[in-house]
Structure formats: C-alpha cells, structure tokens
Amino acid sequence: MNDITMKLQADHLIMEALKEDISSEDVTTNSVMKEAVTGQVELICKQDGVIAGLEVFRRVFELLDENTKIEFYCKDGDQVKKGQLMALLTGDIRVLLSGERVALNYLQRMSGIATYTHTVAGLLTGSRMKLLDTRKTTPNMRIFEKYAVRVGGGYNHRYNLSDGVLLKDNHIGAAGGVKEAVQMAKEYAPFVRKIEVEVENLEMVKEAVEAGADIIMLDNMSVEEMKQAVELIDGRAETEISGNVTRENIEKYKDLGVDYISSGALTHSSPILDISLKNLHAI
Description:
The chain is of the alpha/beta class. Helices cover 42% and strands 20% of the residues.
C-alpha cells in the first residue's frame, strides 16, 4: 500500500478508528503520563504466519505524532515466527500507549487474512486457477482486507459495485432471465466492463454462453455439474467457481480446468494473527 493510496484512501479510515477508541482522551495513559517522555516498545509476533499491514500499523502512530519512529525488521509478505521481533517503535510514550490497540487491530486482522490466504493458495499449487476474494468484507475495512489477500498470494475480485458487472440470481430475476439481464448490461454498462453471470444449473450455463457473457460463475454446483459446465462452455467464456469455498474443501476443485475460484472465507472467516507490543520503557 503506497503513500498516495494511504493518504487518499486509508488515512480518513484510520482517523475514524482512532476517534472511535479515543472519543475525548485516553484517560488511563493521561493518568500515568503527565508529560511527554520518549520511550521504546517492541513489536513481537506470538505465532507463525504471514505479516501484512505494517505501513498501516506505522500510519496509526504517525497520525497521532509524526515524530514517531518505527524500525521494521520484516516486510509485508514475510513469513514470521512465534517470538520474532518485527519492529522497534520510538516516540512519546503517550502516543505509543494510545495508538497501541488500533494499530494492532489493523495488523492482526490483515496478517490473519494474509496467513489464511497463503494457506488456501498453497492448496492450489499446480492448478491453473487463481484464488479470488469477494465483497464479503468488514464495513470500512475493504481496502485493508483486500490488500491483505494480495499479500497472502490471492487476487482481488471486483473492489465494489462500480468496478464491474456481476449478474447474480436476484439481478437475473429482476431482469426476467439470463438472456435479458446480459442484454441490458451490454446496453448500459461501459464497454470496458466485463459482464459476469452467476449460474446455478446447466440450463443457465447454456443461456449465459448464448447471451455472450464474458465470465460464467458456477455457484454452489456439484463437482460433476461443474465438469459438465466447463465442457459446455468450451472456452467461450472465462469460468469461476463460487459458493462456500474454504480451506477444507478447495482441493476438490483444483483439477476442473476453471480459471478462477472465489472464497468469501478469505476475509470473513480468517482468524487474526496474534501480535503484541511488549517491553515498553523510557529512554
């Protein structure tokens, strides 16, 4: 996540998180620290995983005090080990204390997603499929969570509703059918947008192909139905598998010859990575 993206897309979200945690003052810190004292604290990993969100972590403290200094000993995408010293923070102890929870919340959440994504992507080794995320993200956390997926070795599906056309069951119902929905999308959407159609059976697959869909999403179909669908599509559209895809079941799909497989679990079900700030002391 570069500096421009951070300032334009992330800073205001981080500030809202800080305001949520400090509505008027940090009464505990202000009770024990009456004035500015320079201190240091260590960022320690407490379990093995893939780290993601270090620059977001840094930004929390910089927004509180631009003079805060952080020396990192790892980078996003690195595999870290339990007990590893990942960074040393130096600055006003009041800032280090007040920013701790928000900074760790971002880093733990993002690293948990990167770790889970890395594990799931590893199960697809040798397959042509790309692992995608979904829009099943935490409100106001999408930019952070989708970045973490990329760090973990996955790819991003559309970022939001403005990013592409995905005709799901309710859109198809509203339009009156697959053919009608695709035709309406072709007439309305900008020509640079691909049109993806979610299908649930082989009849819908036929309709989507005939209507000229760019991508056909095989949603919650059996493995046997998916095999038949891929044969039916025969390269006339890109293909995607979706529907309750997790670490536990993804391997059964890897040899179907599908282009993409999307998993909401990457962002909605990954556990956090346990990380702490420890050994705070004045210098």
